[in-house]
Structure formats: structure tokens, C-alpha cells
Amino acid sequence: MLVLALLAALFLLAPILIVVPMSFSTAISFQFPPPAYWLGYYRKFFTSEEWLEPALNSLIIAVGAMALTMLLVVPAAFGYVRYRFRGKSMVNLLIMSPLIVPHVVSALAYYGFLGRAKLTGTLPGVIIAHGVLAVPVAFLVITATLKGFDRNLERAAMSAGAGPLRTFVHVTLPVLRPGMLVGALFAFLSSFNEAVVALFIAGRGAATLPKKMYESIRLESDPVIAVVSTLLVSAVVLGVLLSVFARRRPSMRLDT
Amino acid sequence: MAYLRLDRLVKSYDGRANAVDDISIDIARGEFLTFLGPSGSGKTTTLMMIAGFEEPTRGGIELAGEDLTRRKPYERNIGVVFQNYALFPHMTVARNVAFPLRMRGFPRAQQATRVGEMLRLVGLGEYADRYPRQLSGGQQQRVALARGLVFNPDVLLLDEPLGALDKSLREQMQVELKRIHREVGVTMVYVTHDQTEAMTMSDRIAVFDHGRLAQVAPPLEVYHRPLTRFVGEFIGDSNFFTGTVDAARPGRVELDGLGPIQVDVEACRRIGGGRVDVLVRPEAVQLAGAGGPTLPNSISMKITVIVNYGDSVLVIGDARGHPVRMRLPGAPPPAVREAATITVGWLPTDAHLIGVRL
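YS: structure for the whole thing
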């Protein structure tokens, strides 16, 4: 069983891991195994405006999209978990729809919609699109956290003399914080890695890293892509490790 | 002298069935009152209304002459202890206990002194800097108790606080709770479905039956003189017979299928006449005949089951199709063995009559 599992893991991971040695390669195009190793392409990435600008755009968009997602999802999750209302399952379906609709279709829709609002090729435009696309993942994480929240904690706080606001600040929010952080992290990553919608709407003005990579690989097979891929994979691994750490924080659990 | 007064409280969630149906109780200052009843009998809902977490559909709640009915939980001065402890997981024990004082704006130095006092009261002086997850269930419940008491509440409400603990710990905590009640003197309203807990701790027990109040009385009165058959069956072990009282012949009940028995004349007069439920507690049933005392009420029964508890024996027999339960202290005498036929009886004063309202 263990051997099988390792083989499966290898099968899944190998293509990703291959880019790591390639990023240190001296070859002028993609070549495996690399003829020799150097850091030249890293230097190129960190010095060329052509790559740094999309990297910065990606970062700004991901942070913006994360903020937008949380603004939408946190109140929605509270409403969804804590209240009963007519059409609740329809609302759930609506919130989940970005996950169900193919990205190309969403991309096309955003292209038309944002174009009319004169937001294509701008950072706010991409932030809006990415923010909405990240809603389902963040919603799933945060509703799950909220369902596990013991409402007697809020009652205990209220009988202790805390009004609704102070109960939220001193009790609800701190107890839910790890789940919220994981939700925010997923939103961030979903935007940071998104390529299809970005290709349609980011244009020149708000080009993101995945979009730049796609264009670069089509036009020139520049090994800098291996560098960017390596950096992205590292960032994702770091992010996942962080979220695992946040989940393992004992304050997340209420039992002993 | 009512301190906390529940006045015809009604709570309905769907507008049709009443989860709590016309509950009125006057609770004295410093009293330990227990709400006892099976799950779904409305006892917790009533408690939640006193705490302010649920709003009554009708009726009112008064504390020391002030109307509390529409007041928010944080505007009442009432402490609550929950079954699942509900300690704040991100705060230390000391900060949990200090929380009500912080919310009420007590000066910092006073907070520390008061928290220290409370932790000593519940025997957790050493644990101030631990987190709740580092404590056992019993210790967590003590912290919750300290948090509920620290701000000198007018009333402390406890919702099945020992329900999650194992038996020996539960008994230990019962004693502890009684001690704390004596030392602090706060009015306590305690919810449980455990009749032993209710019997051992309470000044008075309020028995809930389907959202209604079946009886409010001291434990021994509830035990020996239940107002309804439900109360008699819910609290303690019981034998119930049905029969008829003839108003012309006081002191006598004609049991269905078992013939006439003698009962207390006064009890009969109180009932008047008509159908009655007759309660005889198993420990009041004695061995009669063959060397035993002669009892005015005796029936013969065939023993079906003998259950040995070590300190006592429960004998279950069959008397002409009616099950009879008898509890004897110590070990069973030689005559008591399975399938044997014995004569048992009880004193007229040990039969409690409950009039059956048709």
C-alpha cells in the first residue's frame, strides 16, 4: 500500500518537481536534465521590469481579491449558517456557481461585463473578477468553521455582561480566527494562480504572473518561466503549510 | 417572599404547540431550586428565558420586584453555567473568570483580587494560567462556575452542569456545589433530568411534564406525596395500582383485580370518592406472614426476578397479573428466591393516593 501511495505521489508531483532543477539550468531553452547549473535566470527574473511588474500586479490583485472575497463571504456565511430563510438551498447554489461554471465561460462574461464598465485592463477589474471566483472556496471553509462554533460561548459572554459588539470582538472573532485565516489564504491563492480569466480581462495594464507566463511560453520558451514556477510552487507549499499550522492551533477546537 | 418570580410564562416556537406552557413559580432569595423533568419537558427553555436568551411568548419574569421580561441578557445580573462548560478557548482560566468583571468595567486591581478569591472558592487556585483545554471536564466546570459567580449575580442558572461528567465525579461535584451554595448564598436555579441529583441538592424541586409544572415542593414531599402519577413514576422507583374510593367507606380502597386494602382515612377524605392511583414505594413493601409482622394489607406474589445491589435487594413479583416491586435492605432472607411464592404487605399510611381526574 505504501509503495503504491508513494508511486501515486511521485506520478503527481514529478512534473512539478522537474521545473525546480530546470530553473537553475544554464540552457537557453527548456532542457532536461540541465547541462549545468547557475542562478542567471533568477537574476533575470528579479531584475527585469517585464517580469517584476506582473509579479507585483499579481500580488496587489490577490490581496485585493482576498479582501473582497472576505467582505462578501463572512457576512454571507453568518447569515447562511445562523438563520433559516426561504430559498436557502438556492442561495447556496448561487454562491457555489463560480465553482460550477467553467472558467472560460466566466472569463467571457467578465470580458463583456467589465468592458462595458470600462474596467478591463485595470487592477480593480481583475480584483472584482478574482474576488468573486474565490467566493465558493472561502465560503466552504468559513461556513464549516462557523458550523462548529458553539453558540453557548456567545451566550456565556452575553450573560457575563458583553453586548453584541463586544461579544463578537472578544469571543466570536478570536475563536473563529483560524478558520477565517484559512479561508482568506485560499482566496489569496485562488487569485494568485488564476490564469484563464486574467488572460481575457487583464490586458496590458493589469497583466498577472500566470498571464505573463502563458504569453512567454507561447512566444519565446524563456527558462525564466521555470524560475517563476519554482517560486510559485514554493509560495503555494508555504501557504498550505501555514494553513495546516493554523488548523492545528488548539484554539480552533473546543473539546479537550 | 418571592425574589425571582415567573408569572404564567409561555413559550411557543411555532405558534401552535407550547414548549413552555403557563409556568408560574416564586423563588425565594438564596433558594436552591431544581427544574426536573425528561428532555423536551420545557425546563431548559424556561431557564433560557430567565437568562434572557429566549423571549417569552407570554407572561413575565420579575427579579426583586423589577420587570426583567424584555431585558437583554447583558442587562440582567444573572450568571449562567452550561453543560458543555462554554469556556472561552482562547483565554486562560484567570481571563475567563475575569471576563465578566472586564465587561462590567471593574478596576484592574479589584479584578485580580476577585478572580483569586473565586478560583480558591472552586479549588483551582493553582490553575490560573492554564488554558481550558489543559483541564479535565470537572475542572473546566469549576472554572465555568467561578466565571458565573465572580460578578455577584442575583441568580445563578445551571443547565445540566454535571451531565457530561462520569458518575463518581458527578457525586463529588454535587457535594461541592452544595458547599458553594452555602458559602456564597446565591439564589440558584438548577436544571437536570437526573432525579437523584434533584433529590440530594435542592431546597425545592419543580417537576416539569410536557411544558407544564406538575409539582413544586421540597424533595421529600415530591417523593412521598406526588401530585400526579407522572411525578411519582419519574422520581424514584414505584408501585402504582389503580382502584376506587367509596366516599361512604373512608379508609378503604378497592384495588382493581387485587381486592380491598386499608389506607389512611385522612387521605381518603381528601380525595372524596372515585377513581384513584395508589402509590406504594418499593421500600415500604415488607415481607409478611411466616414469622414476619402481620400487616393489614397483604398480598401473595410469585417472585419473578431478584436484583442484588449489595446494600439492598430488589424483588420483582407477580400478584395476579400485577407487577409488585419490593426493596429489602441488606441480603435477601432464605424464603426469597426466584419462583417462590411469598406474602408481602405495607402499612395503610405507606399508600399514597392520587385522585384521577377524568
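YS: worth flagging: The first helix of chain A runs from residue 2 to 23.
IM: good catch. Also Chain A is about 75% helix and 0% strand.
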